[in-house]
Amino acid sequence: MGGKLALFWKAPDQKESEGKRILPRQLDAEDDVTNYASINDSAMSRVPCAGIARRGHVNCPTCQGTGRIPREQERQLVALIPYGDQRLKPRRTKLYVCLAVTICLLTTSLSLFFLFPRSITVLPAGLNTTSVGFNANTTSIYLNMTNVLNITNNNFYLVSAVQLDVEVLHQSLVVGKTTMKTPLNMSPLQSGQIYYMVASRILDDNTYNICTWTKVKVHNILLHIQGSLTCTYLCHSEQLAFEDYQYVDCRGNATLPHPLYHRPP
Length: 265
What we know:
By secondary structure, this protein is an alpha+beta fold. It contains four helices and eight strands, in the order αααβββββαβββ. It has a four-stranded antiparallel β-sheet with strand order 5-2-1-8. It is rod-shaped, with a radius of gyration of 51 Å.
């Protein structure tokens, strides 16, 4: 009976001791949760791993409480950054993107504006000088003409005229032609002139009579001039065609230089 009472009285003591042993474990777990939850606070974020280890917490398995990792593990470990970290929200991102897009569009627009190919105007300026000769045996006319060609560069880059091909026609027949190299460089938005001479031979009895008869007061013959000018710019070659109709006085052996004129486009 006494043994049973002893056991009965010891049981509350054992319950109290067991309750004392269990409560600290619960408090330790609560402390762990509290401390882990407060790691994101500004105060706790400055405490090194070594300080946390001294308070009875478990050290970080990666750095072992030193706050450093081995250099050979830099490419193997992954750092977790909170979603609200400021490093994930760079400042003025929209401003930099808009500025970069604006600069690209402006550069592209200016490049297209200045490099876009524009027309190169080629206009005959008329007759400069003529020289006429006759051959009574063959009733032929030898005509040497010097003409002027106006060229206008409407581009914002250098244009070079490299070759000129000209044909002279009389009554749909080719009576003279010439090909000449023209090393002419025209600056942006500038104009230039090319003087070219064509030697022609006309074999026609009626034309010979018009040019040699003294009873005829008008000694003009109509000539059709057509040609092409080869120009190069920006590693590109282009042929520009032109044509003109001219009345030439074939009465005298020589003609003084005619005043040049610019024809409207």
